[in-house]
Amino acid sequence: MIALLLIIISFQGAQLIGMASGTDTFVDKNSKLYQDYDHLYLNLFGTESIVVMVEGSDVTDPELLKALDRAYLSIQKIPGVVEVTSPSTVIKEVNYQMTGRSIIPDDPETIDGIITSAMPSALMPDDTHAIMSVVMEGTTSDATQEDILRETESSIELANFPADYNIIVTGDPAFMIAMNDEMTTSMGMLLSLSVLLMIIVLYLVFKHVRWRLLPLPIVLVGIIFTFGAMGFLDIPMSMVSMSAFPVLIGLGIDYAIQFHNRIEEELARGVSDEEAVIDTIKHTGPAVLIALIITALGFFSLFTSTVPMIQDFGKLLMIGIAMCFLSSLFLGVTVLYGFDKISKLNIPGRLGLKKKSAHHETHIIIDEEHEADFLEKALKGISTFSMRNAFLVLFIAGSLCVGGLYADNLVGIQTDTQTFVPQDMPSLLELKHMGNILGGDDQLNLIIKSGDNADPELLKWIDEFSEHEVDGRSHIQGSSSIVDVVKAANSGEIPDSSEKIQDIYDQLSDRERDAYLEGSTIILLNLNIGNAMTDIGLEGIESLSNIVEEDIYWMTPPPGVHITMTGNSMVYVAVISALTSGRVFMTMLGIVLVFAGLLVIYRDILKALTPVLTMVMVVGWSGGFMYYTGMEYTPMTATLGALILGVGSEYAILMMERYFEERDKGADPEEAMQEASVKIGKAIVTSGLTTVFGFSALIASPFSITSNFGVITVMDVVLALLATFVIFPPIIVTLDKFREKRRHLHQSHNKSGSGGSNILKSIQEAITQ
Asked: Within 13 A of 571's CA, how many CA atoms are on the CB side?
C-alpha cells in the first residue's frame, strides 16, 4: 500500500520534469563566464531568431513577395516577437518613397530595381532565396519560444505561398525545440528497449530461481520513484541525464537479483519463510548496502565537474540507486515472501522437493545435493587458475593497465556539439542548409565599458581594431558595431566631437540603438567567425579568442576602457577544460572516495584496498580500449572513470563479502575463494549481464553522444566482470595469505618472547636463593 501511494506521488512529480538543451546545460550559471554572458550580453543585447527561408526558381516574383508580406503582417502580431525583418518590408518602404503607396508592386522590373538598389544581401542572398527573420528577446523562455515557433508555422501555412516554392522554418530556437522533442521520443524508446533486453537476459540466465522475471518490475518501481524525485527536485532532462535511466535499470536490477537469489538459496536449505527473509536481510542486506554506498561514493565525484548536465547525471544516479535499493529491500523481499506463501497454499510440493507432514510447519527438504552446472564449474575453474598463476595474471593485467593509462592521455576530445545529435534529424539538416546559404553566424561578442560611449577616440579605436581583426585573422569574417551606424550617418567618417556623435545616437531608432548601445557606458562589438563551431571546433575557437585577447593587449584601448569577451561560443569553450582536466580529477577523486569509504566501513586495509586495486585495473584497460578503437571523449564519456568505480566495485565487494563469510566458517583462502566464486558468482554474472544488457539499450540511441557512451560502458562492465573473476581472486588471496603469515609470525614472536621472560625469571630466583 505504501509503495502504491509512493507510485501515485511519483507520477505527480514526473509531470514537473522539464527539458534542457541550452547553454546552461554546459556551463554553471554561477560561474563568472556565464554571469558575463547572461548579464552583460544576453540580457542587454542578446536575441534569438527564427528564420523563415524561401527557396524557389525566382524569389523576386510579385506573388511570392505578397505571400511573404502576408506572413510578415501575421507574425509581427505574435506576442513575444520583438521584430520581424523581411524582403517585403524593404520593397514596400522603397516603393512608398517612390510612389507614396506602401505595397508590393506588380511590375517585376520595378521590383528588380528596388532589390538592386536597396535590398540587403542578408534578406535576399540571391534570386533563389529570400530570408525572413523573427526576432525574440535572448531571455525568452523555452515555452514562449515554442509558442512563437508554432504560431510562425501557422502563419506561414495561412499566407498561401505559391505551390512551387519550398518554405523552411529553421534557426537555433527551432533546432533546440526539435531536439527536445527528439530527446523525449528517444527516452521512451531507450526505456522500452532496456526493459525488453532485461526480460531476455533474466529469462536466459536467472532460470535457477522461481519467478525469474520478478526483479524487473521491482526495479521499474524504483525507476518510477526516481522520475518523481527528479520532478520534485527540479532536475531537468538533458542529452546526458536521459541516459541515466537505462543505466539505473542495469544497476538497480542487480540489487533485486541479489535479494532474490539469496532468499531462494535460504529457502532451498529448508528454513521457514520468516527465517529465509531474516537470513537474507542479515547477510545480503549489509553487503548490498555497502556496495550501494561505495557506488554512490564513486558517483559523487561527478559533482566536481563544471558541466551542469554531468552534475545532474550524478544526482540522478545517486537518487536512482537509492530508490532501486529501497524498492528491492522492502517491496522485492515482501513480494517474494508473499509469493512463496501463496505457492505453498496452492501447490502441495515442488519438483525435486517434498514437504513434512501437515502437522508441522512447512519446510523445504533437499532430496539430493545440488549438482554444479556449467557456469558454476567455469567460474570455479577461472578463479582457481588465476589463483594458481597469480604472478603471471597480475603482471599481464598490470602491464595492460599502465599502458592503458598512458594511452588515455592520447584520446581525442569531441567538441562539435552538433555531432552529438542525430545527423539525419530534419531540423539539423535545415539548420546546416541555412548555414550553407547564408554563411555561419557564430560570434565573439566584446562588451566594451567606458565612461562615455560617445567618445570619438573610443569609436576610432573600435573601428581600427575591427578592421585589424577582419583583415589579419582568417577565421574572423566580419564585424558589426555602432561605429558602422555612425559612419553610415556621417558620410563614412567618425565625427570629431562627442556632441555630434550623441546627435547621431539621438536620431537612431530604438532598434538600431538597442542593438549596440546600453545606456551611456556600454557598447557591443560583434566579431563574426562564420561556421567556426563546425570548421575549427571549440578548441579552435578557444585559440582564436586567445589571439583576440592578445590583440586587445597590444592595441591598447583608450584609458578607462574595460573589455569583456563573451557570447555563446565562449561559453561552450569552457567545456574543453571540463573534459580535459576535469575528467582526470574526477577519476582520482572517485578512487580516493571509494578507498576512504571502504576503510571507514570495514576498518580493514585489506578489505579497503582489494576492490580499489581491482577497479583501477579496469580504469586503465578502459583508457586503452578507447584509444585503440579511435573513440573520443564527450561530456558523457568523461564520466566513465567514476562509473567504472561505482559499478565495478560493487561486484568486487559482493565477492569479497562472500569470501570472508566462507573464511569465517573455517575455509582456507583458496577454498573460500572457490566457494565464493560458485555461490555468489552466478548472481554476479547474472546482475552483470543484466547491467550489460541495460547499457546496451544506449547503443540504439539516435544521439551519438549517448550511443558512444553505451558502447564504452558495455565494454567497461564486461571488463569489470572479467576483473572480478580473474584479477580479484589472486589479489585478495595473496594479500590475505600475506596477512595470515605476518599474524602467525607475530604470534610466534610473542610466544618466544614470553618463554624467554619465564627462563630469565627462574634464573633470577635461583641466584637470589
From this structure: 26
H/E segment holding residue 54: strand 47-55
Cell 573534459 belongs to which residue?
579
CB within 8 A of 112, min separation 6: which ones?
60
517-518 vs 522-528, strand pairing mode: antiparallel
CA atoms of 8 and 347, how far apart (whole Å)? 34
CB 574 within 8 A of CB 309: no
Q: Rounded to whole angstroms, what are the CA distances from 287 to 260, 293, 372, 653, 654?
A: 14, 10, 24, 7, 6
pTM: 0.70
Query: What is d(CA 89, CA 124) in angstroms, rounded to the nearest whole number?
Result: 12
Where along the chain do the CATH 3.30.70 domains lie? 443-528+536-566
pLDDT of 762 over the 70 cut: no
Give me the pLDDT at residue 757, please.
53
Contacts of 49 (CB under 8 A, 6+ apart): 133, 134, 135, 136, 171, 172, 173
Any bridge partners for residue 85, and if so which? 133
- Helix (H) and strand (E) counts in the chain: 28, 11
The residue type found at 20 is: A
The rounded distance, in Å, linking the Cα atoms of 545 and 475 is 11
DSSP character string of 31-51: SHHHHIIIIIIITTT-EEEEE
Contact present, 475 and 530 (Cβ < 8 Å): yes
What is the tens place of the pLDDT at every residue in 216-252?
899 999 999 999 999 999 888 877 777 788 778 877 8
237 CB contacts (<8 Å, ≥6 apart)?
17, 18, 19, 20, 183, 184, 187, 230
Report the pLDDT value the prediction gives residue 324, as an integer from 0 to 100.
Answer: 92
Report the distance separating Cα 57 and Cα 526, nearest Å: 34
What single-letter DSSP state applies at residue 242? G
Q: What is the CATH number of domain 443-528+536-566?
A: 3.30.70
CA distance 319 to 230: 9
What end-to-end distance do the CA atoms of the chain give, in Å?
A: 85
Average pLDDT of 448-465?
Answer: 91
- Cα-Cα-Cα-Cα dihedral of 620, 625, 628, 630, to 10°? -120
C-alpha cell at 765: 630466583
Helix/strand/coil (H, E, C) string of 522-547? EEEEEEECCCHHHHCHHHHHHHHHHH
Tell me the sheet residues that pair with 528. 443, 478
Task: Report the distance separating Cα 487 and Cα 484, nearest Å.
Answer: 5
Residue for grid cell 517491496:
331
- In three-state secondary structure terms, 135 is strand
